[in-house]
Specification:
This protein has helices at 12-26, 47-61, 64-78, 81-97, 105-116, 133-146, 151-162, 165-173, 184-199, 210-223, 230-248, and strands at 42-46, 205-209. Helix content is 63%, strand content 4%. The chain has one domain (12-29, 40-248). By secondary structure, the protein is mostly helical. The protein is built from 11 helices and 2 strands; from the N terminus they run αβααααααααβαα. A two-stranded antiparallel sheet has the order 1-2.
Length: 250
């Protein structure tokens, strides 16, 4: 099956956040070239970089769009009647904002769930095959390759997503999730809190895990394809789940 070129939707703030995070990750040292005083998975931020990132992320998590997309992925995975209805409404509202017509809404929603491979409590059941993880990987690489990212940054993000295959599938395939999945909002607020703590110290440089930066960058990139098409919404959901797990395990 051909993979259509993604058409992600990013606000000016989204683009600014993505550029800032990708710039930090691009400047991270290769493991064999990292400082003896700095762990391989750490990035060193100046006061100016830390302040800029705090300002951008603070603005980001206050936006309605970021909160809605985080809530959407969270509700999809809960697997209850109420959460499924909440997720459906967020999905259809998101598609409307993306310029999609709200025609055959229940069928659209059922097709998304079937393609995601998520058990559903609704009455609509479609003969749509769940997306294979290998196909999802191809979609993720196509999205990363379509953006003006440093090639090393694209590779870092892609490998991190691939490494959480089991976590993603477990989160989707079970009614309540094999284990709690961190939310995009929670991942971001935790990172902000940790960075604020470092910034308030007397140090002029602040070490943060590169995997945490990659986690938020993955979430932001894939939020852009949510609600655009069925398959890109599914791929976006899977990547956001992986991004959240990256942060939870580092």
């Amino acid at each position: 099956m051909a993979i259509y070129r993604p058409k992600p939707i990013y606000s000016a703030l989204d683009k600014h956040v993505i550029r800032a995070l990708a710039g930090l990750l691009a400047g991270s040292p290769e493991p064999e070239h990292s400082s003896a005083n700095l762990a391989p998975d750490m990035l060193l931020l100046s006061d100016k970089q830390a302040q800029e990132l705090l300002d951008l992320l603070g603005q980001l998590i206050a936006t309605k769009e970021f909160r809605q997309k985080s809530a959407f992925v969270e509700e999809v995975l809960k697997g209850t009647d109420t959460s499924e209805l909440n997720a459906k409404n967020l999905y259809l509202d998101g598609r409307k904002l993306a310029g999609k017509k709200r025609v055959m809404a229940s069928a659209q929603w059922a097709n998304y769930l079937a393609r995601l491979g998520k058990p559903t409590h609704g009455h609509w059941r479609q003969s749509v095959a769940p997306m294979e993880f290998e196909y999802f990987e191809s979609m993720e690489w196509k999205l990363l390759s379509s953006l003006s990212l440093n090639s090393r940054v694209s590779s870092i993000l892609f490998e991190l997503v691939k490494s959480h295959e089991r976590d993603v599938l477990d989160a989707i395939e079970t009614e309540s999730g094999a284990k709690p999945v961190p939310t995009a909002y929670g991942v971001s607020t935790n990172f902000i809190a940790n960075l604020e703590s470092l910034y308030s110290s007397n140090d002029t440089h602040h070490a943060v895990p590169s995997s945490r930066v990659a986690s938020i960058l993955t979430i932001m990139i894939d939020f852009g394809v949510l609600f655009t098409t069925r398959d890109w919404s599914v791929a976006g959901t899977m990547s956001v789940i992986a991004g959240c797990f990256v942060s939870a395990t580092t």
